[in-house]
Amino acid sequence: MRLKDKVAIVTGASRGIGAEIASMFAAEGARVVLAARSMEEMEQLRQSISRQGGESICVSTDVRSRESMKNMVKTACDAYGAIDILVNNAGYPMFGYAVDDEDEEAEKRYEAIMETNVRGYWYGARFAVPYMKEGNRGSIINISSVRGHLGLANETAYCAAKGAVKMMTKALAVELAPYNIRVNCISPGAIQVKVGHWVLSRYGQEIYDEYVEKFRDVHLLGMECNQPLHMIGEPRDIGYTAVYLASEEARFVTGSDIVVDGGLTSLLPEPGALDMETLVALHGKQGPMNQWFQSLG
Ligand code: NAP
C-alpha cells in the first residue's frame, strides 16, 4: 500500500474527481478526511470506503469560509493526530459570461469562483501547513485545469483562478521545501463528471439536456480536432496522478504541474477552438481531401 497510515484531507470529496481521489487514497491505506458541503453524498462514500476495508470521516466544509476551513483541519487532526496530505480540489466549475455581460449574476459568480477556487486553496494550505511543519513532512496537491494554461472566451474568471492555482503551487513549493513539504498541482483536461458544464450551471438541467441533444456531435468533433487522444478522461485518471504525488515515489517532485489532458495542450489548436462554424466547415472539407490523398495511392 502506497499511502499506508498517512492522513489525507480531500476537499470537494462529495462527488466527481474529489470522491475518486478519496477512495483511491483509502484503498492505498490512507485515513481520509472527506470535506465538502453535501454530507449525505459524503456519508455514502464513507460507507463505501468502509465496506472495502478503508477508513474515513466526513467533515461538513464550505471552502469559501475561513472558519469552516479551520474547523476542517482541526477535525482532521483531532481524529487522526496529524496531516500528511492535503488535496485542494473543491471547485466552482465554470464561468460562462462575457467580461462585459451586464447580468449581475456574472459578478456574483466571479466572486464565487475566486473564493472557492483560489482563496479556498490558500486557506487549505494556511491551516494545514502548521501541522505538516510539526511532522516535518507533507504533500499538498492542488487541482488546477488546462484552462489555467490556455484561455477560452467567456471563461475569464475560471481561467484566471486556475492560472492562480498553478502559481500558488510554485510559490508554496519554494516556501515549504525547507520543511519537507512538497507542493504540486494537477491540470486535468476533459474529465467525465455528473455536473460541471457551464451550460448546466447557468441555464439548468432542461436547457443542458437540449444543448447535449442538439450539439453533442459538434462537441465531439471539437474534441476530435483538438485533442490527440479521442476520449474523455475519467476521475480515476486524476486519482492515479494524485496517489503518485502523495506517495514516497514522488519524494523528489515539488513545484510541478502534471497535465492529464489526452494531449489537448500539446497540440496547436485547429480553428474550431475559436469558431465552431469554421470547425464544421473544416470537417466538411476534410473528408473529400482525405479521399483525394487516398486516390493518389
Ligand atoms: P464536481 O463533480 O462538480 O465536484 C466539485 C466538488 O467541489 C464537489 O464535491 C463539491 O461539493 C465541491 N465544492 C464546490 N464548492 C464548494 C465549497 N464552497 N465548499 C466545499 N466544497 C465545494 O467537479 P469536478 O469535475 O470533480 O471538479 C473537481 C476539481 O477538478 C475542480 O477544482 C475543477 O475545477 C477541476 N477540474 C475538473 C475538470 C473536469 O473536466 N471535470 C477539468 C479540469 C479541472 P459540495 O457541492 O458538496 O460542496
UniProtKB/TrEMBL annotation:
It comes from the Bacteria. GO terms for biological process: bile acid metabolic process. Pfam families: adh_short_C2. The keyword rRNA-binding does not apply. The keyword Oxidoreductase applies. It is an enzyme of class 1 (oxidoreductase). InterPro entries: NAD(P)-bd_dom_sf, Sc_DH/Rdtase_CS, SDR_fam. SUPFAM superfamilies: NAD(P)-binding Rossmann-fold domains (SSF51735). Its EC number is 1.1.1.47. One of its GO terms (molecular function) is glucose 1-dehydrogenase [NAD(P)+] activity. NCBIfam families: PRK07231.1. Belongs to the short-chain dehydrogenases/reductases (SDR) family. This is Glucose 1-dehydrogenase. It comes from Enterocloster citroniae.
